[in-house]
Write a structure and sequence with these properties.
Number of strands: 9
Order of helices and strands: HEEEHEHEEHHEHHEEH
CATH topology of the largest domain: Trna Endonuclease, Chain: A, domain 1
Strand order of the largest sheet: 1-2-3-4-5-6
CATH architecture of the largest domain: 3-Layer(aba) Sandwich
Largest sheet: 6 strands, mixed
Radius of gyration: 28 Å
Shape: elongated
Number of helices: 8
């Protein structure tokens, strides 16, 4: 579908709602007016990309009612519809999806006020405060996973068991200073621990294999 093929369906969609519609006005692909209401501006593109977002955001200087119109089948929508709609909502833009002669308004322009997530914010702050040092490299995928505060706790327990052998969970907690060591041992998220008897744990074969590499990351 060409960009020009998007125009007539969008024009008809707006005209049905009582708008007078004209194309290529002041560098805008589509401009529509209905009485004394704010102008509606629509940018037509085959793909949802950064250039289109730049154009649409610039049009917000002319009107609060700016839409992006793209084919219903464009890859950026079929693969990432939820994320794309969220981004456009944050930018205060609307979205029209065109399929043949049909047009659907997936999003209308509106001022965006993000709703804070207090639990996620608390989790982020807690992770930042509890993590020791800065063992990861920003922007670089970490082989085997990210060194989190929880993994550091498990690592300290694994290192203790590697030196002391099988130990009661209560003694692990006392010796490592981790009051929740029993929980870490019981959950065994990384498969590093073996439960030998009630409340007694040892380092598992997997823990023995993976411990050296994680210790090296922890100390660098």
């Amino acid at each position: 579908m060409r960009e020009a093929d998007l125009y007539q369906p969008v024009k008809s969609y707006l005209e049905v709602q009582g708008y007078e519609v004209k194309a290529e006005v002041g560098r805008c692909d589509v401009v529509a007016r209905r009485g004394d209401e704010p102008l509606v501006i629509v940018e037509l593109k085959r793909h949802l990309n950064l250039q289109l977002l730049h154009q649409a955001v610039d049009r917000l200087r002319l009107s609060d009612a700016v839409y992006i119109a793209v084919p219903h089948s464009c890859t950026s929508l079929t693969k990432n519809r939820k994320q794309s709609v969220k981004l456009l909502r944050m930018l205060g833009l609307g979205l029209l999806a065109v399929a043949g002669e049909s047009v659907q308004a997936w999003l209308d322009p509106a001022p965006y006020t993000p709703r804070p997530s207090h639990p996620r914010r608390r989790h982020l702050l807690r992770e930042f405060e509890q993590r020791q040092g800065d063992p990861n490299i920003g922007g670089v995928p970490s082989k085997g996973g990210v060194m989190t505060a929880y993994r550091q706790r498990a690592l300290r327990i694994a290192a203790f068991l590697n030196i002391n052998g099988h130990t009661k969970a209560s003694d692990v907690a006392a010796q490592t200073g981790d009051a929740r060591a029993r929980e870490v041992l019981y959950r065994n998220v990384y498969g590093w621990f073996d439960r030998l008897d009630t409340g007694i744990y040892a380092l598992s074969p997997r823990g023995q294999r993976e411990l050296p590499a994680w210790l090296e990351r922890h100390t660098t």
